[in-house]
Amino acid sequence: MYFYLTNLIPFIMAETTVTQTDKNLPTDAETIIQGAINGSEIFVSAFDNDWKLFASGQNPVYVAIVNVSMLAAVVLVSFWSLQWYEQIMSEGFSSGVVKEMAFPMIVILMLNNNGAMLVTTSLALRNVSNKLNSSVLTVTRNGITLKEAIRSVNTDQTFILAAKTAMAECEKLADVEIDKDGNQITPKKDCKNKVAQEIDTQASEYKQKKRIQGQNNWNPLDVAGGAVNTIVQGLSYIIFSGLSAAFQFLVQFSFLLTAYVAPIFLVLSMLPIGAKPIFAWLSGWLALTLILLSYSIIVGVAASSIVNSPSNNPLLLQLIEAIFSPILAVAIGTGGGMALFSGFTSAAKFVVMPRRD
Q1: SS3 state of residue 145
Q2: Each residue of 276-324: pLDDT tens digit?
Q3: Could you tell me the pTM of the whole model?
Q4: Are the C-beta atoms of residues 12 and 29 closer than 8 Å to each other?
Q5: Exposed e or buried b for every residue in 13-24, given b needs 16+ CB within 10 A?
Q6: Crossing angle of helices 2-12 and 27-38, rounded to 10°
């Protein structure tokens, strides 16, 4: 059991195992470790093909949603056109009539040609969100950008865990032995020194290869631990890294899903209700953007605080990335989205509220 678990860790951390080549890397393992090191960038690029298909106007799911929404829009316009006809006959093309007709015409225009204008709007919002997130990650703190701090700390903690796994094997060896020539040797100490040198070299080479800033600020000889402790930390690392990757994946998927349902919210805004659902859609997009930004800031600030302080704990940043940051980011983003929607609702009520003389 122990042999299986200790070999499972290098399998998950395939990028740090020199015995494996890039072509043999398991896709899921590579995604997890690269997601931990590179942050949200890898998950943004993971949806590039979906966004390209969305932008082309040929996505079958989006086209189906647009067609249904267009049908609903035509029905609503036909229904309200009778009232517009009566108003035009009595008032002519007054400002009130034009105002009531303007929004439905805009909806029809945005849904025309498979929702081309709405697609352009969604893509513009996505670019703004990703640009803001990239700008946040370029902020420098403690002499290093937040992006590089995340990459450096995650890389260090990955190699720390690899060192712990290898050191646990050294613990099985005897402290002192007599070789076949009658000389006294120290197998455990020699094993640890060899592992420490190899891990330190691999970590430095990996950082240089991936252009990751920062030197190794941890001592491989100080990371040795018991077999049980190593197994628990290894499994915890896998779980936390997977949760962090899943959270960032879901945030990016949520942006795509929000873009898909935009036609529905746009058409529902034609109904004679106080707050238009399209405002809820915009508020939801803002909430997702705030979640993305908050997550990057929290993780980046935590990483920049850790990067210059030697730490042999391989789970510190993973715990922050997987548990505390998502909770806090969702709370901030949801609160901001609700505040914006409340503002839209209040503004709508103010606009439609009749004046009292």
Answers
A1: strand
A2: 888 889 999 999 999 999 999 998 888 888 877 656 666 777 888 888 8
A3: 0.78
A4: yes
A5: bbbbbeebeeee
A6: 60
